């Protein structure tokens, strides 16, 4: 009878989902994301292990290995970042030096585009090459590793927040991310390689620290002590930091995350030395730039989220998605080409030293095309040009048209099924309109000298990026490190703050929007305001599946089959309730993990009689039980893993003594604890679950991370409200 | 009978102290430091307040005020730092330009020191001036504000860790810190102004955010919403960050703390641009520098801790301490003077541009004294000279002698009763021996060019500082920002890591040593290793003083008088125990704070019968109760505060209903929770106390921060052990 509880419970979960059809479909949390577990299960075996005389040695080895792993993470992340850079470089070299230059040399550039078909040949070759590269990127993402699409920062943010995003730190994700981003950037998309580099670093961190790779499969047998969620998170965080350092040449920005854990490494391909100064009266102008950045950023996020929803609905088919990638590649190439032709902005080479042949295009000998300089270089080079070129290097309208086009292209590109970041495109867009703004200021106040549009380009870059991603601390660090000068620290900070204020009036940052769209149950930094009157009773799920300290194998099996829970509270007594369909649980005694139960079943740690299992287990068992077992969370695999244990009917009649294996003091809150209190426990301690007990310490419910994440702060008309989402299955 | 419990308990505390006379006196925690309370007491009134319609407005005002306060903190901290700089500058100007120059001009520098008494006149004038300034600094610290002595970083570290250090963020501390450090540095002590600037920033943060000043007393009535420990800590942290930024011109180092909270500000007086590069084969040499730094740093810390203990024993008298200050001032001045005379290191002015007249001293016209350049400039200038001067600017022996002397002087100065930091002295010492090391390397490998001793001076500076304070993250950030170049990031990081490894073999960082010496109950970053077998039962104090939900005024008064506890658990029932002298407590119902009890008594919220106080309290009471009341924690004042309420005999017979005022869900752990679990709760959530309950949620004891801090990790011979300190009263 008691054994049937699990099934009954499961049905109830289902019913619960169907009970609220009136709720809007848009606001839900997906049930496909499980939480990571950062808590250590301190069972009796674990404690005994600490008394073991060679435990000291283990602690030493662990701390030594931590340094080794961090060093390796730094080096390998840097190598991968360098490899991406090299791939991008050569793919562009092939494009510019070989394809374009050879074809161009055959053309008579003085004739009209319509007149000579030759220019069309160049354009088509250009498009085809870009489409080929972008096609490879799209293919990798769409058909091999979907999680490698996009910038990867939202996924890593969620992972570090404690959410298990399937496949996010796998080797195949790394490969398709690295190759894909090189193809996407090399293929002329309006895409950055920074986000993907950070994601790559995170994968490296996860892979090396585990000393094995599931995809190949390949197990070095090393670093077994790091095979748990807690250690892995730390290494993923170190890897992401190494990725930041590698991508931005911003070691402080990156190192501040990871230094205490170990070494780091970086290259310096993104440094814009600013040797300029600003005047105090320019600060209001910078603030205006910040406001523009906030507005355009909020608009970007709004349009991008609409576009993502559209994409979700209508570009659902895999081939359609590939076609979209190719379409964007072609249009990106075409836009550059047509702008180049229509906007006649030829500048004498004399004023600017870094001119390659490609920049000449339709211009006369001794001149170069400012548009080509913006469109057809490495984006990093274009940014440098916008910051540092002399005052007349770009005509204002060139800048405006370019920034508008690039803004729209970036809008379309972000969310495409290729690995693509938004950092550099946003910086480039902002630098272009910032420079335009600066030129405008110079013309408005012709009597004042010292208005260098390059300064406004920097402010615009910061504003556009800040308006889209809404970070302040790390962006300031990254931009200041990239400009290598503290002089602009204050204006950049001000710009970023204004930008954030303005942008936050309308919507959230781009990454958060994408996290929302993917229905990932992330927890913010602070509990929702006005959440002190929402009590544990309301937050918890009362239909909890608990176990007694001694259970029949059959009941354990039934529970494992019927539920996909990661852990089960253990109580001293389960009784049927007189007034409720839910059972009456006794005092909370601990928690046992699914992985531990499966291991116990696998090792047949069960007895014919419900007695205590004295001295039955040996100290080696602790290794088995604390082994880091990654469970696939979809139903099929999990059923398989229980059924594949091959338990016989007689096995099922045996009894298990769970007591030595339970974590004896799980976190618990009383029924009247407030949501904000619960939130702080989850956030401060990285919990996965929390038991809710009544005044007598009897189990009354359980709160998981998702239950907490359901409650979101919404602000409207100066009022704070708590919005309650529901958890959607099968989405 | 129940009322007598409090007294009985108190006696037991006393006995407990005396029970363990065998414990060494050196290892104890002082009972004079109370914890701060970062938890919000969510009583019913507080929750009702959230339902109040104008609560939204309050949230808006609070968030606006937060920005205003942060902006003010930044500006005022920067002004104070600038004022300190200006005071130092002018005191040195007076010394060099007026006193020394005038007197020197009368002397015949070519004659011997012994020959002409004139030079002695200069020396004595010099000493007197220095002693005068240092005397002022010492007087301020010794007779007015003792907590202003030293660098202030250990105190701020403890404050942010959650410990109430009396007077640490008072106005008078700020005044004597700022004036004192200017006098100490101006008075030629081997002292830095960075630590005191950070401390000053922290005081500014505390003062402004509270909108009032107790010392004057002066209350603007503003920012009342920030008058609690939690908010104050955040602002103190922002202030300290502003102090870092102001002291080091290192906004990222500082801003990373505070940016999300608000604006920051800085000046740029400490920037050492390095336009050099290093070779890969130099890395092992840098590592050697790191090892030397680790060893000399560990020796420094060891000697300084011995010296501090000596000082504690023998320089206990106030006047003795003042004499010691004067002695150090005189000896510092004398050392410089005598070295200048004995070490004959005259350099032609030609090779170095920044030579003032003071630097000439005994040298011929057209020459300057390298010793004077080291001893008699601003230390920052000396550091710059060591980093940037051409290869032959200093003779090696000059450097060695200088670094040795400065090392010893710094050793003696740190811990003296004047405000004095250790950053710049350590950097200067390290830069001197680092440059010496660099010259040695150059001579050892005469065939290799490119060995610039300036690079080794930088590495030495980092190593010496790292060896003493053992920070890695923030030091790297600060040094890299100060050198304004990422090129040296990697070697500096390596040097700092090696230094930390080497130093940590021998002892802890200087700040931690001083925290230990002062017996402050600080919690580290991680729980002590091997602490999973120490259970809550052992950590807790079983002799807890609890209350029922309805209590007689007389019993509340008795408890308040007899104990100095900050909060009291509330249970549903207190009964005498059959088997123990301790009472049997019922189910844990909540916690009530001392400040709330005093306010309730003050407002006479009591009734003649033990009934529920329906509708008796109004919403305005919530303000009274949540008012931030700072309690003096020594016995006398606290008795006064209860007795001064003027309660009559008939008042004492009344009953209080505590229920609406209790925090209904305090953090609790079961008896079998491990120390490491408890530690993580305290550290992760900033708790002040934790209730320990049995399996039925009945109160069994209480754990305070001090009880947790008692357990320290000690490592010997590759074994980790947990050392248990005891809490000493009246020390």
UniProtKB/TrEMBL annotation, chains A, B:
Membrane-spanning intervals of the chain: 67-88, 124-147, 235-259, 279-301, 322-343, 406-428
Pfam families, per the entry: CBS, Voltage_CLC
Gene3D superfamilies: CBS-domain, Clc chloride channel
UniProt keyword list: CBS domain, Chloride, Ion transport, Membrane, Repeat, Transmembrane, Transmembrane helix, Transport
Membrane-related topology note: Multi-pass membrane protein
Main subcellular location: membrane
Subcellular location: Membrane
SMART domains from the UniProt entry: CBS
GO cellular component: lysosomal membrane
Molecular function terms, GO-annotated: chloride channel activity
Top-level taxonomic group: Eukaryota
This protein's record includes keyword Transport: yes
Record domain CBS: where: 540-611, 662-719
Family named by the database record: Belongs to the chloride channel (TC 2.A.49) family.
Protein name: Chloride channel protein
Organism of this sequence: Angiostrongylus costaricensis (Nematode worm)
